[in-house]
Amino acid sequence: MQRIATRCKTAKDETSLVTKKARKEVEKSCDEAKHCYSLPSTGGDYECVEFGNGYSVNLPSRSCACRKCDLSGIPCRHAVSVIRENGLEVEDFISDYYLTSKWQGLYMNGLSPVNGPKFWKKSGGDRIEAPPYKRPPGRPKGKARIKGVNESPKKNVTKVD
Q1: SS3 of 40, please?
Q2: Which H or E run contains 55?
Q3: Is 0.70 surpassed by the pTM of this model?
């Protein structure tokens, strides 16, 4: 309950459009996008070339061949390169799950405190008991074995005859 209250306060103090984690990932992708350039195609498709490798990027569906956009909801370096070359804002392509408003709404209600057993209503029903103990199959663990006649009772004890 205390952890949720702390996160609620942190979410209320957030002023940007997207969460801190999403901003960090986008900044990282923006730094890595310096090595990419894109080639346009039709239907919102682009080919982003990075170090000689081509990646298919579709802006309307927010997908890339590297699958990072599809899995995380945050544009990868290839998508960032295409978005920037088209003069669009990268933040517009971040999934709605990373919006600060969603984050604030998640923790808005929080958890209500619960009264102790003193304040519980008596149901009048039978008392719930634990199920009967059932011995598990197999040899019981932890029991010492019976030692043979020629075995010494203690370890590291040597007899000289």
Answers
A1: strand
A2: strand 53-58
A3: no
